[in-house]
Automatic annotation (TrEMBL):
Residues annotated for Mn(2+) 2 binding in this entry: 278, 283, 301, 362
Family label: Belongs to the peptidase M17 family.
Cofactor binding note from Swiss-Prot or TrEMBL: Binds 2 manganese ions per subunit.
Catalytic activity, EC: 3.4.11.1, 3.4.11.10
Organism phylogeny: Bacteria, Bacillati, Actinomycetota, Actinomycetes, Kitasatosporales
Localization (cell): Cytoplasm
Keyword Cytoplasm listed: yes
Residues the entry annotates as binding Mn(2+) 1: 283, 360, 362
Main location: cytoplasm
Gene3D superfamilies: Leucine Aminopeptidase, subunit E, domain 1, Zn peptidases
Function: Presumably involved in the processing and regular turnover of intracellular proteins. Catalyzes the removal of unsubstituted N-terminal amino acids from various peptides.
Protein name: Probable cytosol aminopeptidase
Cofactor or coenzyme needed: Mn(2+)
Catalysis: reaction(s): Release of an N-terminal amino acid, preferentially leucine, but not glutamic or aspartic acids; Release of an N-terminal amino acid, Xaa-|-Yaa-, in which Xaa is preferably Leu, but may be other amino acids including Pro although not Arg or Lys, and Yaa may be Pro. Amino acid amides and methyl esters are also readily hydrolyzed, but rates on arylamides are exceedingly low
Length: 516
């Protein structure tokens, strides 16, 4: 991962391969179409105060995601200046939004693949801004190369898709290297993003190399490294425990299912949280087979479990004063002679029976068992994360996840946490009239209901398996978990690590007693 440092060295005197500055779209009050952000003063001075004019001549507008490169002026020890767009100009003395800084830093880091060292002179009003820029750099410099050049990957010189190595080192100018608050901001960014990038790696790993057993092994290794207790239930233990949902989904695969429990505890904790993740390492749809064109990216159907895994490890690395338990419900959904059939009835871990009308509605079945298991420990709150429904993508698109809950105040708190860290989310309802569609003449409930509002129906199903009196939220990350289009901001193509930062922020708020 890209190395991070802070420096108070003036931009002209810092030795680096590139210097990153920020530009923005001018407002009516500025009377310019392009303005320079704080941090660009030294470059502007070297251009005799005409840097904005030069950039406009080169086509720069300050729009978000825009990159303009130009030679560094005389007297600078960096040969290249990279001007990155921040979007709208900040209001006077308001500074730039953390997400704008995060995205700009990510864009610049991607543009600087192949560069050894870059200095970032983006506007840093405080340590929070430094943390946002650090996150953006580390997220933007990510590359999944394990299957491109194994030998190179092993010696840390792996090349990205364009044949260049990721940015190796980033120095943040304007940061205070001896200030504990600034140092803590960078350390937090490094811990969270390193685990988020581990989640991205897991999502990107082909399903022939990542199955429930191997995923569990990764979790066990990380738990041992970071002092987290881990318990893995295999097929025998799941059968003995009566986990009918997880067993039913995994029945058709040669790779048996697993339920992994990760427990991070703090001696100073006053609150406890449970995170539950859907971990379908490959989803063929089972007997209700997915049509052609819908199978190719189904390795990403374990993104919820990857996010939960990463968040628990991050909480441990940050030493948060809150107890966090992660539940990874792992299975591979495949068709075979032993697979669950439409019409079968499963007895869940809670004791409820479920009529399976569609085997491609499998995520809610594994989550139901894990939610009930989490509920037995009576945490203060439960959050589940899942690439659950195509209906949520139809409702919110490919970059926003839905937030449902059994408590309006908790839903609002989770939504606000997501927006705070820059993960687009939207609160969604759980209309009671949709519950009727899941009534079954054979079992306690069916795993399908009305087609319209399918994402909400799935949320209502999950609610049935949450213990009484426990605040619960459901994050349907089907849209943003896997980016099939071109990279943007700090988001790469492929696995994105969506929801990791939201979960970590919720844990931080719980530790501080500010979750509501």
């Amino acid at each position: 991962m890209t190395a991070l440092t802070l420096s108070t060295t003036a931009a002209p005197g810092l030795r680096a391969d590139a210097l990153v500055i920020g530009v923005a779209k001018g407002s009516a009050s500025s009377r310019r179409s392009l303005v320079l952000a704080p941090g660009a003063e030294a470059v502007d001075k070297a251009y005799d105060g005409r840097l904005a004019d030069v950039l406009e001549t080169l086509g720069a507008s300050g729009a978000e995601g825009e990159v303009t490169k130009l030679p560094a002026p005389a007297g600078f020890k960096t040969p290249l200046v990279v001007a990155v767009g921040l979007g709208a100009e900040s209001e006077k003395d308001a500074g730039y939004d953390g997400e704008a800084l995060r995205r700009a830093a990510g864009v610049a880091a991607r543009a600087l693949s192949g560069v050894k060292k870059a200095a970032f002179a983006l506007p840093l009003a405080d340590a929070a801004d430094a943390g946002a820029v650090a996150e953006g750099v580390l997220l933007g410099a990510y590359a999944f190369v394990a299957y491109k050049d194994t030998a190179a990957a092993a010696d840390k010189t792996a090349k990205t898709k364009n044949g260049k190595t990721p940015l190796a080192e980033a120095t943040l100018l304007g940061g205070k290297p001896r200030d504990k608050v600034f140092k803590a901001a960078l350390e937090r960014a490094a811990a969270v993003v390193e685990e988020l990038n581990r989640a991205r790696d897991l999502v990107n790993t082909p399903p022939n190399d990542l199955n429930p057993e191997s995923f569990a092994a990764v979790a066990q290794a990380a738990a041992k490294e970071h002092g987290i207790k881990v318990q893995v239930l295999d097929e025998k233990a799941l059968t003995k425990g009566g986990y009918g949902g997880i067993l039913g989904v995994g029945a058709g695969s040669a790779a048996g299912p697993r339920l992994v429990k990760l427990s991070y505890t703090s001696s100073k904790a006053k609150k406890s949280l449970a995170f539950v993740g859907k971990g379908i390492t490959y989803d063929s749809g089972g007997i209700s087979l997915k049509p052609a064109g819908h199978n190719e990216t189904m390795k990403c159907d374990m993104a919820g479990a990857a996010a939960v895994f990463a968040a628990v490890v991050a909480a441990a690395r940050l030493g948060l004063e809150v107890n966090v338990t992660g539940w990874l419900a792992l299975a591979e959904n495949m068709p075979s002679g032993s697979a669950t059939r439409p019409g079968d009835v499963l007895r869940m871990y809670s004791g409820k029976t479920v009529e399976v009308l569609n085997t491609d509605a499998e995520g809610r079945l594994v989550l139901a068992d894990a939610l009930w298991a989490a509920s037995q420990e009576k945490p203060d709150a439960i959050i589940d994360v899942a690439t659950l429904t195509g209906a949520m993508m139809l409702a919110l698109g490919s970059r926003t996840f839905g937030v449902m809950a059994n408590d309006d105040a908790f839903r609002a708190a989770v939504h606000e946490a997501a927006e705070e860290v820059g993960e687009p989310a939207w609160p969604m309802p759980l209309p009671e009239h949709l519950r009727k569609g899941m009534e079954s003449s054979t079992a306690d409930i069916a795993n399908m209901g009305e087609r319209m509002g399918g994402g909400l129906v799935a949320g209502l199903f999950l609610r049935e398996f949450v213990g009484e009196g426990i605040a619960w939220a459901h994050l349907d990350i089907a849209g943003p978990a896997f980016n099939e289009s071109a990279p943007f901001g700090y988001t790469p193509k492929g696995g994105t690590g969506t929801a990791v930062r939201t979960l970590v922020r919720v844990a931080e708020l719980a530790a501080a007693g500010d979750l509501g």
